[in-house]
Specification:
Structural class of chain A: alpha+beta
Strand order of the largest sheet of chain A: 1-2-5-4-3-12
Mean pLDDT of chain B: 88
Oligomer: heterodimer
Strand content of chain A: 25-35%
Number of helices of chain A: 5
Shape of chain B: globular
Shape of chain A: elongated
Largest sheet of chain B: 2 strands, antiparallel
Distance between the termini of chain A: 71 Å
Number of strands of chain A: 12
Helix content of chain B: 55-70%
Largest sheet of chain A: 6 strands, antiparallel, barrel
Mean pLDDT of chain A: 80
Order of helices and strands of chain B: HHHEEHHHH
Helix content of chain A: 25-40%
Low-confidence stretches of chain A: 65-71, 297-303
């Protein structure tokens, strides 16, 4: 005898029950449902990509222009030269940081501390597919099948020195890049070393002011407690480079932003420093994902 | 109801929300209209009860899967359920309200889309607030989140008014069955 099929009301009740359970059950029990996101995003990606292009055409990302630069971005050649300059400076600072790290490693080896290897970085271009406003992420069209893993650093495609964020989810063909300007980024505090924008004599990174930046929610960062003595060495237009051991090695010395304000606080011993990324990170046409390969201690890829 | 047309429009609207929604964003806040809510409201206004609930569950599920949430550790995952439940509850609200609305008026779709979006927002924020108390979901400010979502609902209503005319053209293609009048016919 055939079993009677469940009534629509029974199906509805079962559906609601299942949805309530999956909504409220702890993540360790429901995280397996995340696999469905990959196929859905892959199916939606063609339409989203077209919409994303239209979105960027309607509202292109703006770039901050600082008087300290003394350069107006009125032509593509000037823009390209500036990009090359910023890239070169990032590379130089990375090498300097590496030199200082090796010097300290030599000291540590003399004390018996095991040697930590460097990483080689390979750039992988990923187009923007869309944005998740609720999660503060940028969706891009490269995923785990292309070697992308969670916590891979991402830089802007038209400004390879500018840090954009970290990969927070890697599906087979798409990934989510959590923007550094989102308040929920982890690590919550981003430690930076702030250097002048000019390419001059060797900058002693260990002597430069450091600050812990926190995303303020409006696309900028702020550090409410920079010591007045350190703040004296800063000026508007200085560049904040990531120098935070809790972040991936491939992201070190990338640009977080530029100092746009140094303001007094209620505490006379501290000043508030505001840093803003050079680009509107949400409105990028694509990102470069910095894939790390740890087994090559010598090679040094794109900065 | 023409399910193929609904599937096609849902695919386009979810893609629109993922790719284009930020073009209509207000400042740096997560305030922007949703095309999917407008489409769902339109279906809820004209479709039968059974079709409407199924459409709401599917649309909500797709919104859940394309709107990840942040969990501690900096990762993002898709939470299946909150938007699907919210959409189903919102659809039930629209089902009750459509009997007293002028369904062919362009403002009707806007008002109902705003209400559906608002109900969904309340459900999502409530569920995430509860879950954030014992789980790794990062949900900092429920009131701020609800405020942003409420303003998004208002913008969704505006988008609903704009899309009411093109969606009205598609009504014959949808093949909605005539819905029985909610009230008995008046006899004079």
């Amino acid at each position: 005898m055939a079993r009677p099929s469940p009534s629509p009301m029974t199906l509805l009740a079962l559906t609601v029950f299942a949805l309530v359970v999956s909504s409220l059950a702890p993540t360790r029990f429901t995280s397996w449902l995340d696999w469905m996101r990959g196929p859905v995003m892959t199916m939606v990606a063609p339409v989203a990509w077209a919409g994303s292009g239209a979105s960027l055409w309607l509202r292109p990302g703006d770039r901050i222009v600082l008087e300290a630069d003394g350069v107006e971005f009125d032509s593509e050649s000037v823009e390209a030269m500036r990009r090359e300059r910023d890239l070169a400076r990032t590379l130089i600072l990375r090498l300097q940081a590496r030199t200082e790290e090796l010097e300290s490693t030599i000291n540590a080896l003399q004390g018996g501390v095991p040697f930590g290897g460097a990483v080689a970085v390979t750039g992988l271009y990923a187009k923007r597919v869309g944005v998740s406003l609720d999660a503060g992420t940028l969706e891009v069209n490269r995923g785990s099948l292309h070697g992308v893993t969670v916590n891979t650093a991402a830089t802007a495609v038209n400004a390879p020195h500018q840090l954009v964020g970290l990969v927070s989810a890697a599906q087979p063909l798409v990934s989510s890049v959590h923007l550094i300007t989102d308040e929920r980024i982890e690590p919550e505090l981003i430690e930076v070393v702030i250097v002048p924008p000019e390419l001059g004599e060797r900058v002693e990174l260990s002597a430069r002011p450091r600050a812990q930046l926190r995303p303020s929610g409006d696309g900028t960062f702020e550090s409410p407690s920079v010591g007045s003595a350190a703040a004296e060495a800063l000026r508007v237009g200085d560049v904040a480079h990531l120098s935070d051991p809790t972040w991936p090695l491939g992201a070190q010395m990338l640009v977080v932003g530029r100092v746009t304000a140094i303001e007094p606080t209620d505490e006379p011993l501290f000043k508030r420093v505001v840093v803003r990324p050079e680009l509107d990170l949400q409105r990028l046409r694509g990102v470069v994902l910095r894939l790390e390969q740890e087994d090559d201690p010598v090679a040094e890829g794109t900065p | 109801m023409n399910w193929a047309l609904f599937t096609l429009l849902l695919w386009l609207s979810v893609g629109f929300d993922v790719g284009f929604r930020d073009a209509l964003q207000l400042g740096h806040l997560a305030i922007a209209p949703s095309c999917t809510f407008v489409l769902l409201t339109y279906v809820c206004v004209w479709a039968s009860r059974g079709s409407m609930i199924v459409c709401a569950a599917i649309a909500g599920l797709l919104i859940d899967l394309t709107s990840p949430v942040v969990i501690s550790g900096g990762q993002t995952i898709a939470l299946v359920g909150p938007n699907a439940l919210g959409c189903m509850l919102g659809a039930a609200l629209v089902m009750n309200l459509r009997a007293v609305m002028f369904r062919k008026n362009v403002l009707t779709l806007g008002v109902l889309a705003m209400l559906l979006s608002l109900v969904t927002s309340v459900v999502v924020v409530a569920l995430l607030t509860v879950r954030a108390r014992y789980d790794t979901v990062v949900f900092v400010s429920p009131s701020g989140e609800l405020g942003e979502r409420a303003l998004s609902a208002v913008l969704t209503g505006v988008l609903g008014v704009v899309l009411a005319i093109p969606l009205a053209w598609l009504r014959p293609a949808f093949g909605f069955r005539k819905i029985a009048a909610a009230y008995p016919r008046m006899r004079h």
